Fold these 2 entries.
Entry 1:
Amino acid sequence: MKITILYFARIKEVVNYSSEDVDLPEGVETIVALKSWLSGRGDTWQKLFSGGGVVRAAINHELVDDMATFDEDDEVAFFPPVTGG
Amino acid sequence: MKTTKWRFFHLLPEAKLSEPVYLNVSVQPEDFDTGHELKQLKAATPQAGALVNFVGLVREASASGHLSEMVIEHYPGMTEKALQKIALQATERWPLLGVRMIHRVGTLTAQSQIVLVATTSLHRQAAFEACAFMMDYLKTEAPFWKKEIGDFGEHWVEARASDEQAKQQWKQPK
């Protein structure tokens, strides 16, 4: 399944990507599974998703929790807790 | 940058269908003239007996030291939707006549205006409460991130637990 992933703020700086298109293996269709799959890329990713900091997610512009599922061509975003206002 | 203006009708049973709610939400790098914005909101909702507004500013100092700049990053596309959703939630909960929201993005200097939330209603309570409600939700649900730059270097602002608690209080029954 192909999706687009966006990264924002501190997370963008840590992973050094603002966006990427990925082709996921079968079975990776929830936020938690995607985090786990990305963690397999190495220490930086592992630390990002399993370290102390909270990583929030959105699917197609809607805030979601870890169990949310996405579909082909969806836009998934990872970012830290928001600090606007 | 994107500006959305639209009118719709109250879904509340007690609301009169003849009174559309005025909503106007903007995300922009440019500064705004608060006086002008309030005048426009007042003109758009002539039935109003109350107008409340909040303006958030860049502090000249943070816990880390003196600030030279604040950079506000956002998620284009999601930001506008998140603000509209917050404004709609407020209009469903209070009998508002109008809502104006502006949030700036990009590089701002100390004392710059960051955000404007303004509400109008027939009586003051709805306008006061809805304004506070929208700020509490904006702080915790709209995808903005602040980076502080100053004599201390630069760092991302951490989310505050007190902001989350402020939002939670709106979920408790009165």
Note: Residues 2-79 of chain A form a domain with the Ubiquitin-like (UB roll) fold (CATH 3.10.20.30).
Entry 2:
Amino acid sequence: MAALTPISRTPVSFYVPMVAAAGAFAGLLVGTAQGSSFIGIVVGALLMGALAFAMTQLVTAEKPVRWALTLLLAVAGFAMAGLAAGIIGALFGWFFGWFTFWLFEGRYRAYVAPYLTAGQVLWHYTFRVICGAILVFLITPILVVMPLSFNAQDFFTFTPEMLRFDPAGYSLKHYEDFFTNSDWQGALANSVKIAPMATLLSVSFGTLAAIGLSQQHVPFRRAIMAILISPMIVPLIISAAGMYFFYSRIGLQGTYMGVVLAHAALGIPFVIITVTATLVGFDNSLTRAAANMGAGPVTTFFRVQMPLILPGVISGGLFAFITSFDEVVVVLFVGSAGQKTLPWQMFTGLREQISPTILAVATILVIISIALLTVVELLRRRSERLRGMSPA
Amino acid sequence: MTDAAQNTGPMMAADGTTLKSSLNRALRRQKLRALMLIAPLLIFVLVTFIAPIADMLFRSVENQIVSDTLPSTTDALKDWDSSAGDIPAPEVFDALYTDVFIAQERKLHTRLGSRLNYELTGVSSLFRKSGRKVEDMGEVYQDQFEDLNPFWKDAENWNALMGSDAWLGAQNAWDPKSETAQPAFELREEIVGLLPQTAEVFEIFADFVQNERERNLAKTDPWALVYSAFYDDLRREPDVSSYGGTGAAEMLEAMAAVSSFETVDTTAAFADIDKDWHDVEVWQTIQTYSPHFTSGYFLNAVDMKKSADGPEMRPDNEQIYIKLFVRTLFMSLVITGSCILLGYPVAWILANLPARTANLLMILVLLPFWTSLLVRTSAWKVMLQQQGVINDTLVWLGLVADDSRLALINNQTGTIIAMTHILLPFMILPLYSVMKTIPPSYLRAAKSLGATNWTAFWRVYFPQSVPGIGAGSILVFILSIGYYITPELVGGTTGTFISNRIAYHISSSLNWGLAAALGAILLAVVLGLYWAYDKIVGIDNVKLGG
């Protein structure tokens, strides 16, 4: 992004108090942890204000000074409370170095419109900090789970060893438990058996229906669409209750087939939505051209239509797969002990015998979902490119 | 000008039919083809999904268990006036004796007991107790008949008396060790006219032994109930002398003896089993729930109950469901509100940043969206605990004393925090797609015309983003109102939703009818919202992952 506003250095009376205020805030955190908030605030404000003044007025080379500050605070932190505090100190140092020069050189002004008042600039950055905090809120649970899964203790919290980055505080034992415990392995095997089967069912039926739905003249289109989308809308507990009652009547309750059928039904809306979205803007003259050149409907489907809608079909399939792989309410009711899936095992684990192996499983699942997310994103781009909706 | 005459007629297609009908046919064929493609999935969804929902709705009003288990009692009770305050007539107790006897043989009386216990506490133990003791009543007669003549002890004699000749022949020829089915019991015609009650009971007995127990009828002694029915029949003094088959002499002998038999007064005998049988309320409950269909479950689901004079509210200390529905709605609203509050700024910044940065930040939104629900719930469980990461951090910072750690889990706070996090992407994504379409120049134009930042946002930008808020809110609200897993794991007792209660009734209390009624109410709310969503956004416009 090009700079919008020419920048100039700001007066000492502006940036030193600002850095001192930030220093006071940091001092508050460190001070409370050490026992006295008030001393923390005073020391933090004075120290950071003085450092900011010294860095900009006494020394002029920006880069060395910032490195020096980082190093200084890292050493101070290490001296106070070991390795973890050292790393936190280094982060503080890096931040204050950057912050001081950002204010001093007037860089904060470069990318906002020149006509903004000081208050508006302040709001601009406050807003970004708020958004940043919300994004952190979104991602924190995942970030907390990952390191905790390497805990050497059977605790759900960071042990002092972990905070000291002591290798003894970390271990792979929860992963080992996951890969050796027959309960978890059985659950994994069940999940792997159920999800692909359910996906296959919903993708094959769903793709056909999506093609039918995107024809020009479909009687009762809205009603049919509403029925096909309903498994996504109806609360899972109601679907689960209904399936439990109905499947026990017809003898499917507690069978592999019952769970597969139930999961396939739940996955169908996702296939319908993604595939119909791909079919919007599908050029029907292509199928007519194929027919014109003597291809039957089946050949046309597999040689012309299918390659074009394949990205949509695959991402719909991935959605259906993750729905089944992640589903717990319906399988709790429709399945029996023989169909215990991974989420079910996690659910009972969380409710009854809470074991940190869950965190190891969670980490593995996060990695799987990152992989799936990447695949879906790549497919979406490919599909848009194929259909000429965005430049390559 | 002959051409002109031809042109006034209908246009013709190549095959000689009119163009209109030819086009119509093509259109019909097209429609048919589209339907053929949709049909497999439609049938699949109807069978695996819609039928179960319909079944659930049916269960919420179905109530055949009372009239199926106590057929003669409910018949006899029809004329009983419950408001008079008297217990029913002795015939009703006779019918009850027959019904409970058969039900306890089939082991159905406890099921009926627990069904009626939902309506009136204590009925369950009443039926269980009666089931155990009802046999004693019949044995009074059984002993007397057997003392009179050992003939009445034997199963074969009874069969010879009650069964038709054709069946007797078949039964004697049947080899119990063979794989073939036992010949189905048939009544002897003369006996039906002579001893109608005995015949009826014996037929039920024979059917039970042959089909449910799958035992050899010839070797199974009849129920005590058969003897009491036999006694009742004989007391009516039928023309026994007209019968000449097996046991005619014994029957005449019995007929002469019954008048001096010790009798059982069922009305008093049931009161001996449990004095609750003389409680009018028990009988009112049975009468109220006699019909095949009932609104009782639905009334129950809104804290009402059926009484002699129509529906009435339950006492205050038994009202839980309305409170639970209100709590579910309230918490869903709070969750939706906090999603708007947190989602709006993020969607705004995603829509206004340059594409490259926005795509990177989008990953932070999509990653939780794609992560397993249980992973996120377990993460929150770990973070919110008393000894969890958040409390530890707060204690370390000195913001909270070590002995007064915040209770963030197993209450409403826990549910709201965790569910806001889980549903936030569902708010951000629709908001983002709407905000993407709002041209940034509008805001600049407003500002250049002298609007302040706030006025420009409130009067120009916000109204254009309202459809996004609407779509996101309805989506989040629909999802949160029916949530089960997260409230179950982090909600404790005060943070649970109506769905947790439904699950409880299905798997623990086994009150399926009530679960179905609660589910039906929840479903109605959700479908109403779905309809609104369809009107506002259109189901075709549901997008997944940006």
Note: Chain A has three domains: 12-115, 149-180, 182-386.
